[in-house]
Amino acid sequence: MARFLGLRGKKLGTVISAVCGLCFLCFGYAQGVMGGLLTVPAFLARFPQVDTINNDSLHNARYQGITVATWNLGCFASAILAIFVGDVLGRRKTLLLGLSIWMIGEVIQCTSDSYGQFIAGRFIAGFGNGFNTATVPAYQAECVKSHRKGTILMISAGAFVALGLALSYWFTFGLAYVSNASAAWRVPIAVQIFFALVAFCILWFMPESPRWLILTGREEEALVVLSALNDEDIDGPEIRDEFLQIKDAILVMSSGSTSSLRSNKEKRNMHRAVLAYFIQVFQQMSGINLILQYLALMLYKQMSYMGWVARLIAACAATEYFLASFIAVVGIDRFWGRRSLMMFGATGMCLCMVLLTVLVYLWQVHGVGGANIAATVFIFGFSTFFAIGWQGMAWLYQVEVVPLRIRGPSNALSTSANWLFNFIVVFIAPIAFRNITWKTYIIFACTNFAIVPLIYFFYPETAYRSLEEVDVLFYLANEAPGNPWLNVVKIANKEPLWFGKRGEKPFDYEKSEWHRHYQEGMSSGTTLENSGERSATMGSNENENEKQISPGSDESTFPIGQAISSQSNSDPLSSSSEGSQKRLNKDLGAHLGAHESPKKKSKRPQHGHRNKSFGSTKSDKSNYSNRSDPEWQSSGMAPQPLRVSSRPTTAGSANTAVSDRALEDARRGIVRTASGRETYLPDGVPVRPESTGSHGSWSRFPPRDAGRGY
Question: Which of 133, 286, 401, 664 has its CA 20 to 30 A from that of 28?
């Protein structure tokens, strides 16, 4: 079968987006299905513990909250777990795992004959969904163009969630009075298994995120995926440029890990993780799940509609919610951006909650005629404002604002915030409705009011910017005088875009000031860290290396050679500055000094290739130090050192030696010109005649080891 089902370019991107949309559709469906079932007579007869219509006791209200919120608790648990396993498994495998667990949980639910089995099924299904919601936004954002990212994520995380919610209410309404009472609640639950199964089957053939592949050192596979996503030849300048942007961002963030979430230096990791975390808190504290998950019950109990009328109005409200989500889809990347939509949505929800409080009070306390109908109108208005400003926005923004190196754990952490506060809201809602009735809405009117200034002062605009551009914004905010928490908003408003609003490129990234600034930082031995701090991928301190050069030696004693120098400079991914060359000489001298002075061991991390590097055994050292090759002596050349990459790496050590044959090529002055995809491979790679065929690079770099030493 053809790779990625033979899809390339827009077709491949569309299918990836459709799979992500199906994952969010399942999420939205599960959010709404319980809200509809709480008014279905057959379901309440099977599980009387959750019946607050015929038995409005505090005991039943608590059980109802537990039943609905157990799913959210499972989502929270797996979102926390995704912090630790998401970057290990990768985006695609994490999604496959989540969908598998999801389907198992739904099967348990729809076959339940006891309350305990039903609760267990909801927790397991939620556990699978937590993996999905923590991973889908990152996977989709890393596979789409920057100028289309907002629109596409708003479709999947906005419109598809709303569609799932609408479908759940319509299925519940249509099957509420079927002759088979058991089917009235089992079938609506089972329907979502179909959507999850379709998503699983398609995702099996889809590519991994190219950014995650580069992050883990699998650069060869990443080039293939980038080529397929852009429908460009792997040698094309667009592929090369995008690869450079991602690689630069990774190298700047290369010393990151899960613990890097606590770092608040130049990278501003903690700053960005906090913004992502609270954007999800804001979404849930808007009160949306108070409305969506209990809408039919609210209409039945608080506004005195008949059971079937309450379910019908709830289905219509969910449909209107789905249609309203397309307003954001159309306008987010054309007119408004992120900040304005979020502030607009929060303002509208605040006003609707205030009016809802007043109208429900008039209906319940004073019995004012028509107040219940007016309150229903503002419920529609509340869901409309949320769909426009917040439904997909929180999932989009949490991906855009964090750097690649911590994107996996940070997204999992912020998603856990969504599910934690979702659980709190859903659990307390039945109890609040029973105890404080109409006053419940005042709480969420206040939270929406507080959201507006927080967005205005602390959240930068990320519209039309690539994921790598956002890294630059936070770096500049940290360098500027004043408070970085406030600086980043000002800088985002005035910093020019790398890409136009329609994806056009106003400049060449390789010639950009940021790329030159980055390369100067690499050549001077820093990775834009604090003074004196070095990236883990660049090895240990240079002063330690200099001490390992034998006494009386000079850097010129260990010449690089014209062949190596020219080949390094021809590599489009290498650093060609004088400072980089000087640093390379030092590294080479340190490598030889380590052999000549065994007592002084290099502190450079050792790379774990299966094949031993030249110089790793006593015989190698002896042969290398006592060469008697006549051709060597007649050439007048000094012994050539082992060649080391002149560029910092994404994985492993920068002190990895190449093969004997590459060393011999360097000694003889042979230059092997790379062609095809080898042009973009890291320097230090031996390019041999037999490896320049159409699949030569794959034969030299099997997927599990591809790029790890570079």
Answer: 401
Amino acid 402 reads: V
Tokens of 208: 């991994």
Angle, helices 160-175/183-203, rounded to nearest 10 degrees: 150
Number of CB atoms found within 10 A of residue 333's CB = 22
Of 698, 680, 702, nearest to 610 (Cα)?
A: 702
The Cα 69–Cα 49 span in angstroms is 15
Tokens found for residue 64: 């109802």
Burial class (CB in 10 A: 0-12, 13-18, 19+), 580: buried
User: Phi then psi for 581, rounded to 5 degrees?
Assistant: -65, -40
Query: Can you read off the two tokens belonging to residue 321?
Result: 């919610």
Q: Which of 211, 199, 196, 75 is nearest to 141 (CA)?
A: 211
Q: How many angstroms separate the CA atoms of 218 and 203, rounded? A: 20
Please compute, for residue 281, the number of CA atoms within 13 A of its CA located in the half-sphere on the CB side. Answer: 13
| Single-letter amino acid code for the residue at 674 | A
Tokens, residue 607: 């790379």
What DSSP state is assigned to residue 68? H
Q: What is d(CA 219, CA 681) in angstroms, rounded to the nearest whole number?
A: 8
pLDDT mean across residues, the chain: 75
3-255+266-458 is classed CATH 1.20.1250.20: yes
Q: Do the beta carbons of residue 614 and residue 580 sit within 8 Å? A: no
Are the beta carbons of 101 and 131 closer than 8 angstroms?
yes
Average pLDDT over residues 654-658: 35
Tell me the one-letter amino acid at 535. S
Q: Please tell me the pTM assigned to this model.
A: 0.67
Instruction: Answer whether 455's CB lies under 8 Å from 286's CB.
Output: no
Residues near 704 by beta carbon (within 8 Å), at least 6 away in sequence: none
From the list 130, 79, 136, 212, the residue with the least C-alpha distance to 395 is 136
Tokens of 530: 């604090």
Is residue 194 predicted with pLDDT exceeding 80?
yes
Q: How far is CA 684 from CA 200, 218, 400, 545, in A?
A: 40, 16, 34, 20
**Distance (Å, whole) CA 237 – CA 472:** 23
Q: Is there a contact between 102 and 132 (Cβ–Cβ < 8 Å)?
A: yes
Residue written as token pair 């009386």: 552
> How far is it, in rounded angstroms, from Cα 49 to Cα 595?
76
Instruction: Report the greatest alpha carbon distance in the chain.
Output: 108
- What pLDDT band is residue 412 in, cutting at 50, 70 and 90? confident
Give me the residue spans of the domains in the chain: 3-255+266-458, 542-601+633-700
Tokens linked to 636? 């007048």
